[in-house]
Design a protein that fits this description.
Elements lengths: L3 E3 L10 H11 L18 H12 L5 H17 L2 E8 L1 H6 L4 H19 L2 E9 L4 H13 L5 E7 L11 H9 L3 E6 L5 H11 L3 E4 L7 H9 L3 E4 L1 H6 L11 H6 L4 E3 L11 H12 L3 H14 L4 H14 L3
Parallel strand pairs: 1-2, 2-3, 3-4, 4-5, 5-6, 6-7, 7-8
Helix pairs in contact: 3-5, 6-7, 13-14
Bound molecules: adenine and zinc ion.
């Protein structure tokens, strides 16, 4: 089986609908209208997706709820070949559910450890600020993360509605996280154009960009991303589900890769977008005519850009080479 690695997946966005239903019953949370008749999440555009995401997140009220979610995510992905996965965690979603940041993180870490014990899958967490909650909220998210360090939290990021706020609003939060030694990434170039990517690079000091696909609209920016080796966390299934591109054949990931930009493949919010990491790898490879050596290269690129310690990186790269000798 081909091995995969992931840098961009929101833990609340990875919640299986059945788990959300079960917890909603147990915790007495109203989920009326959250699901379609066939049991998938109901949403129709980016705005209604973000609302559905928040509603699904709201059923996770106890550390053991998050442990069950993290276990389901990691064990499920590992069964399909994932050897390393980073997840976005959100101090704001924890607070909205009435959980302290520490118990939220402890719950998630417990689920990750159980999945690792059973499958060997490695993981790390990236705390994110939610852009549409504004500058103060994002600064507070960075402060919360810095004040509650955990060995599995290794990065800071920015998620939420890219159409709101300016990158400069979040410069202080990113400066704090950088100063404290965290890896940095931000969503940009998904619903914002090339300028949004440039602003994230110039004002937030990120080494990776969440999505970044709209760089394809700007040749100069593509040259910059290639020259500076900025890693794109590309999420093809998510982009197609949200209507950015019609299908995997016309998706720009191949053009970005051919321009020399380090690209990775990621699932973003898999059950919301009817995808999994394995499906995103396999279906994108099929549509883009990528052979096994390209697929191995995608996994290698993700491991090289991972926000993990060097020992872990070396061990995972060796595992990749043993399974796929070239
Ligand atoms: N939060 C969860 N999924 C997201 C996405 N695709 N873009 C921005 N924020 C998100
Ligand atoms: Zn995302």
């Amino acid at each position: 089986m081909r091995l995969t690695a992931e840098l961009h997946c929101h833990i609340e966005g990875a919640a299986p609908p059945q788990l959300v239903r079960r917890l909603a019953m147990r915790r007495g949370v109203d989920v009326e209208g959250l699901f379609t008749a066939n049991g998938s999440y109901a949403w129709s555009d980016f705005t209604t997706f973000l609302t559905a995401y928040d509603r699904a997140a709201a059923v996770f009220r106890e550390p053991e709820d998050y442990a069950a979610l993290a276990y389901a995510h990691y064990a499920g992905a590992a069964r399909e070949g994932m050897i390393y996965g980073e997840i976005f965690i959100s101090p704001d979603h924890a607070a909205s559910a009435g959980l302290s940041f520490e118990s939220y993180v402890e719950g998630i870490a417990a689920g990750m450890e159980q999945a690792k014990a059973e499958t060997g899958v490695e993981g790390r967490m990236i705390a994110v600020g939610v852009r549409h909650l504004g500058r103060e909220a994002v600064t507070r998210a960075a402060r919360t993360m810095i004040d509650h360090p955990h060995p599995l939290i290794t990065g800071f990021g920015l998620a939420g509605d890219e159409r709101q706020g300016a990158a400069t609003d979040f410069a202080r939060a990113f400066a704090m996280a950088r100063e404290a030694g965290y890896g940095l990434t931000a969503h940009a170039g998904e619903f914002g154009g090339p300028d949004s990517i440039r602003d994230a690079l110039d004002h937030l000091g990120v080494t990776r960009i969440g999505h970044g696909v709209r760089a394809v609209e700007d040749a100069e920016l593509m040259r910059r991303l290639a020259a500076e080796k900025v890693v794109l966390e590309v999420c093809p299934g998510s982009n197609i589900a949200l209507g950015l591109y019609p299908d995997r054949v016309s998706h720009p990931v191949g053009r970005l890769r051919r321009a020399g930009i380090p690209v990775t493949i990621n699932s973003d919010d898999p059950p919301f977008f009817a995808t999994t990491l394995a499906r995103d790898y396999d279906e994108t490879a099929l549509a883009q005519n990528w052979d096994a050596s390209v697929v191995k290269d995608l996994t290698r690129t993700a491991l090289c850009a991972a926000f993990c310690d060097e020992d872990t990186r070396v061990r995972l790269l060796a595992r990749l080479d043993e399974t796929h000798p070239s």
